[in-house]
Design brief:
- The protein is of the alpha/beta class.
- It has 3 domains: 262 residues, Metallo-dependent phosphatases (Purple Acid Phosphatase, chain A, domain 2, 4-Layer Sandwich), CATH 3.60.21; 57 residues, no CATH class; 47 residues.
- Helices cover 32% and strands 23% of the residues.
- It is built from 11 helices and 19 strands.
- The protein is globular.
């Protein structure tokens, strides 16, 4: 069976101030063409179909168009909800839509109930594991500790139990939206950390033939059977070095996996340039970035006059301007934002306690902080899902 693996469409999302709806529409057209021209038997979309729980109307219309075009091809599609989606909203009408061959899997309770698609060699069971917010689904799975690893492990136990009851030789594909150990993140993904622990080991997926992952925006191979497709379009300058693509996966009669990486159309390349303004404007090496979307980091010790206007004269698609002035070693004048860069909420809170009190929190106090952050994240997820 030939499976096309994609994820993280983020319909409705902009790139800085650039509306990406046209590029997203072009990607949908590319997807449909690929399905038709490469004789794809099934499409899997591993979450974050939309960029937010309540997407703009134009994004909903594009999604509707994608569903109709995929259904017209007669090629089954399996989709799950991601952490950006509202599982309830995305799942509305799932039963009816399923009759057209578009299978939406947005409920944690259905983790062990696959979409079964036959080919010449027998059945392939597709299990959809939507994004599982630990605090919200721990009761569904009967786990005491609310963590990504425990709830995803419990969901996979249901998958393996169902698979064990199926005829010998039944092959299996799991769709999941999670941060798997070994994956490389970017600035584009919304934080899904809980209690400071958000990564799950790839071994949690043992026992299935292929795992189609979503969440991380860079295409990557965790193992030959566990892969991220990445997002089809860039959504931050941290993705400058990404090659945007999908995986074309051939699942053999014996469960063997072959994967080919297919490039996606990207409207413009991304470029990050750094240096003093005068140097950037004069350097012939930066000429190759004149048609790219540009993030410029200026290192001038004194902020130059009208930097954005001057940059745009040479780089008309400059979207982001960052100031990082050159300073002597030991200069204490470092911005608050730079001091916090790359630090998790838990670390920032612990440092604040240490600053105010003179000593950091003990283990009990750390646990209280973790529980507080988990409660806030769970409340945000509930509110997004009900708006």
């Amino acid at each position: 069976m030939r499976v096309l693996h994609t994820s993280d469409w983020h319909l409705g999302r902009a790139f800085h101030r650039v509306n990406m709806l046209g590029a997203q529409s072009e990607f949908i057209g590319h997807l449909v063409t690929t399905v038709r021209e490469r004789d794809v038997d099934a499409v899997v979309v591993s979450g974050d179909v939309y960029d937010r729980a309540v997407p703009p109307l134009a994004a909903v219309e594009l999604f509707d168009d994608a569903l109709h075009r995929l259904a017209d091809l007669g090629v089954p599609t399996v989709m799950i909800s991601g952490n950006h989606d509202s599982a309830r909203r995305l799942g509305v009408g799932a039963g009816l839509i399923g009759r057209a061959g578009i299978h939406l899997r947005t409920a944690a309770s259905a983790a062990g109930t696959p979409v079964v698609l036959p080919d010449a060699h027998g059945d392939v069971a597709f299990y959809g594991l939507p994004y599982l917010e630990p605090a919200l689904v721990k009761d569904e799975f009967g786990v005491e500790k609310a963590s990504h690893e425990t709830v995803l492990g419990a969901a996979m136990d249901r998958v393996r139990a169902d698979l064990a009851d199926r005829p010998a030789g039944t092959r299996s594909v799991v769709l999941a939206h999670a941060f798997v150990t070994g994956g490389a993140a970017s600035d584009s993904e919304r934080d899904i950390s809980v209690g400071g622990v958000f990564a799950v080991p790839a071994g949690v997926f043992d026992g299935v033939d292929y795992v189609a992952l979503g969440h991380l925006h860079g295409s990557q191979t965790i193992t030959e059977r566990v892969r991220y497709s990445g997002s089809p379009l860039p959504y931050s300058f941290s993705e400058t070095d990404h090659r945007k693509s999908m995986w074309l996966v051939d699942l053999g009669a014996d469960g063997s996996v072959g994967a080919e990486r297919l490039d996606c159309p990207v409207p413009r390349p991304l470029a990050r340039i750094r240096g003093r303004l005068a140097d950037l404007l004069a350097d012939p090496e930066t000429a190759r970035h004149e048609e790219a979307w540009v993030e410029a980091t200026l290192t001038d010790p004194v902020r130059p006059a009208e930097p954005m206007a001057r940059l745009i004269e040479r780089f008309p698609h400059t979207l982001s301007l960052v100031f990082d002035p050159e300073r002597a070693p030991g200069d204490p004048d470092v911005s608050y934002a730079r001091r916090l860069a790359g630090r998790e909420d838990q670390q920032i809170a612990e440092d604040f306690v240490a600053h105010v009190r003179g000593s950091g929190p003990d283990e009990h106090e750390r646990a209280v902080l973790r529980d507080a952050f988990d409660a806030v994240r769970a409340d945000e997820t509930v509110r997004e899902g009900t708006r």
